[in-house]
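Q: Protein A?
A:
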Amino acid sequence: MKVFKTRKAQLVGRYVGLVIGALIYACGQNIFIRPMQIPMGGAAGISLVINFLTGFPVGMANLLINIPLYYWGYKSMGRKFFVRTVVSTASAAVFLDLLNPVLPAYEGDMLISALYGGVVMGIGFGIIFRMGGTSGGTDIVAKYLNEKKDIQVGSFNLVVNLLIIIISSVIYGRFESAFYAVITSFVSASAIDRIVYGSDRQKKATIITSKPEEVSDEIMKATGHGVTALRGEGMYTHEERTVLLCVVGKYETGTLKRVIETVDPRAFIMLGDVNEVLGKGFKSYGQ
C-alpha cells in the first residue's frame, strides 16, 4: 500500500510539473515574444502567424495544429509519453489564451525581449521535458519520421524551424526578427539543458594503455572514481590492448591527465563531454 501511494504521488507530481512548465512557457511567450513579433519554430510559430493574420487565438490554433499530429504520436511514442504530450500541449494552449489579456506585454528593446523570452520559455520547456513530456508539433513529426524513415530528428527540426522562422519574418515585415528568433532559440535551448541536466557536466575518458593495472590504480587513488577495463585489439598491429573507461568531474581532467602521463606517457586518451551521470560518486537516480 505504501509503494502504491508513493507511485501515485510521483504520478501526480509529474503531471503537476507538466502543467507548471506549460504555465511558465505561456508567460514567456505572451510577455516577451508575441508583443515584439519575434518568430518561433514549429507549431508555435505557425500559431503566431495565424494569430497575426486573422486574430485567431494562439493557443487554440496551436492545439488544432497538434490534434492531427497526436495520431502519429500515439503510435510512435507509446501511451504514457503520448498522454504527457497531450497534457503539456493542451495546458500550454489554455494558458496562452487565458493569460494573454491579463499579462503585461513587454514592448521595449527587441534583444532584451529575445533574451528574456528565451530564458522563460526554456525554463518552461525544460520542466516539461524533465517530467517526460514534449512540446508537441514538429517534435512529434520528427520522432515519427525518425522511426519510420530513419530521418534524423535534429536535422528535420532544424530545416522545418528555419523555414517557419524565415516565412514568419517575411509575413511580419520585419526581416531582422529572424535574427532575434535565432537568439531566442539558442537561449531557450541552453535553459532547457540547464533544467533537464542541471550543472551535471562530466568528462568521460577512454584510455588505451599497456599498463592498465598501474594506470587504473593511480586514477582511483587520485580521483576516487572507479575504472572499468575492456579487452581490445589494435587493428594495425593486431596486438591485444586494454581499454580503460572512467568518468571524472570536469575539474578533475587535469589530475587525470597528469596521472596517466606519469604512469604511462605512451597511453592514448580520448576525453568527451557527458551531460548526465547517475551512480555512485555522482547523481542518484532520484535527482
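Q: Protein B?
A:
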Amino acid sequence: MTRGAKISIALLWIVGSFTLWLSSYRPFTGTRGVAKSLPARIGAYSLSYDTPMTDRQFRLLGTDDAIWRTYTDADGHEIYVVLVCHAENWKSIHPPDICLRGSNMVITEDQQRDGHGELVLFSRDRRSDYVSLYRYGAADLATGSYLGFFLHHAPRALFRAAVGGYLVRVETWVDADGREAAVRRCESFLEAAEPHLRALNP
C-alpha cells in the first residue's frame, strides 16, 4: 500500500469518526420551564393530574423541559398530554411511535393529517385501542412529519441559527363511544391548545 493511500485511509477514519460523533451526540438541555407554562384549563378540559417524570425519562428525552399530564372534561373523558420543548437541542426530539411501541403497543394505523400525525394503536396489556395525535411545532412549523421537522431544523443548525420548538402528543383510550369519538376528543384538545402552543416559542 502506497504512502498516499495510507494517509487517505487515516483521514477517512478521522473524518468518519467525527461525523459519527456529530450524528449521535445529543447534549442535555436544562429546563427553561416552557413546557410547564401550558395552562391548566384548555378548552373543555381541566388539568386533573401532573405525572412526575423521572431523571431517567428526562435523560432519554435529552431535556427536562417536558411535562406528562392528564386533562379531564365534564363527562370524565381523559386526555393524556406529553409536551417536550427544545431550544437549540432539537435532536432531543424523536418520533412518538418509539415511546409508544416501548409501552407494549402495536401500531395499527399511521397517517398524516393537516398539521399533525395520527396513530391508532392496540395495547397488548389492556387489550384496547389507543389514539395518539402528535405535532412537531415551532414559530413557523406545524407538522406531523418527522422528515419535515428534520428539514426545518437541520439547515438552521448548520448555520448556527437553531430555533426553539416542541413535540406535543395528545392521546386517549378508545372507550364505548368508539374510535372516531376518541379522535375527535384529541382533535378538539389540540385545536384549543393551538394558541398556547404557538406562544411557547415566539
